[in-house]
Amino acid sequence: MIIKDLFKTVVSVLTVLVVIIVSRKFIKVLAQAIEGNIASETVLALLGLKIVIAATTFLPASLFMAVLMVLGRMHREQEIAAIASAGGGVSTIYRAVFWLVVPLSVCASGLSMVAAPWAEAQTELLMHQDRENSDIRGISAGRFSEYSSGELIFYTENVDVNGRMHNVFVQNKQGDKLGVVNAEFGKLEYLPGGLYLILEQGERVQGIPGQKDYTIETFREYAVLVEKKAIAFVPRIEALPTEKIWKSTTVTEIALMQDRLNVPLGVLILAFLAVPLAKSSPRGGVYGSVLIAFGIYFSYGNLQRINHSWVVSGIVPSWLGYFWVEALLLIVGLFMLVRLYSWKWVALKLTGKVTV
Questions:
Q1: Measured between alpha carbons, how far is 292 from 289 in angstroms, rounded to an integer?
Q2: CA atoms within 13 A of residue 193's CA, in its CB half-sphere
Q3: Which residues contact 114 (CB under 8 A, 6 or more apart)?
Q4: Sheet-wide strand order for 145-147
Q5: What's the alpha-carbon Rg for the chain, to the nearest Å?
Q6: pLDDT of residue 134
Q7: What 3 state SS string does 109-120 have?
Q8: Are strands 165-174 and 215-227 parallel, antiparallel or unpaired?
Q9: Do both 255 and 186 map to the same domain?
Q10: Does residue 257 contact residue 242 with C-beta atoms inside 8 Å?
């Protein structure tokens, strides 16, 4: 019963958190797609990748909230008291909780070690490809567009289904000279040297503004360089695969590896902490100790972020890393468990005079 309720609640809470976070980030992606910086076919791929990253990040928090909600309800409805009257104690509750938590921690390991880095790498690759192809996506019939840092101004009346442009106007600046080109047709092609706009059946006027020596010529085909520089692909450190940083001696990569290990550890320790936190009186509020739980999780999350900068800057030794934060959270959980059942119960338990 506990495992079933926990699983449903974890899925529900994780879905809500992922939808909220991904929706906020996805608004920026849609804005870039509207501006032509991201291809429309890339938008759904980015959405799926961001869901994987967000699910990895919020799985420990979702499980923490789920345990609080399920066990808190069981305390208020006297279900825990009924289990205790049947001979089940805290160890019974922990066994039920960890039957779900252990598989989830394994899943969290796979997400943080493999899936999330892969999703980060794919996101960086897709964004890089879109930056390279931004000039092609910027074509819109009936609108003036700037390319190559404003050196090229482009306009076309119509673009057919094959990408062929009709009635094209181009203003191209080369040093002090300004060129104006009118052509019946045009198309974009990648040629040696970069991206070119190939114009057909038109006229070109070139000269220096303010002077009278202009060159006027007609052409059958004329090519205008749109973009010649290649954009280097430099992925962020978060996109590095785990096998590459596993034995790294670089401080930033050590901190990144500890970030990834922190996800499955957080699932285990937060679940351990949530069991005593979930205890509430029958007349207590809906969430019982939710304020205390929120304060503990808020402190835990901030300590993680601060500790990352401490590891990178050398304030905290890299061998210690994040593990002191996990140890501190474990001590808090043990203290709350002892406080819940009293020191006398602990003494009896250690001496074997009570079985739970």
A1: 5
A2: 6
A3: 242
A4: 145-147, 152-159, 165-174, 177-191, 194-207, 215-227
A5: 31
A6: 56
A7: HHHHHHHHHHHH
A8: unpaired
A9: no
A10: yes
d(CA 333, CA 191): 64
| Structural domain containing residue 201 | 139-227
If asked whether residues 111 and 7 sit together in one domain, one would say yes
Considering the domain architecture, whether residues 145 and 254 belong to the same structural domain is answered as no
The C-alpha atoms of residue 333 and residue 330 are separated, in whole angstroms, by 5
Confidence band, pLDDT 50/70/90 cuts, at residue 329: confident
Interior/surface letters 223-254, b for 16+ CB within 10 angstroms, e for the rest: ebbbbeeeeeeebeebbbebeebeeeeeeebb
* 245 shares a domain with 115: yes
pTM: 0.68
Task: Note the pLDDT tens digit of each residue in 147-168.
Answer: 666 677 878 888 877 778 888 8
Within this chain, do residues 125 and 247 fall inside the same structural domain, yes or no?
Answer: yes
The DSSP string of 124-145 is: HHHHHHHHHTHHHHT--TT--E
pLDDT tens, position by position, 190-232: 777 667 778 898 898 888 877 777 888 888 888 877 765 555 5
**Does residue 243 sit in the same domain as residue 117?**
yes
**Residue 164 CB-density burial (10 A; 0-12 exposed, 13-18 middle, 19+ buried):** middle
What is the spatial distance between Cα 145 and Cα 168, in angstroms, rounded to a whole number? 12
Tokens of 242: 């785990």
Overall domain count for the chain? 2
Looking at the structure, tell me whether residues 189 and 248 fall in a common domain. no
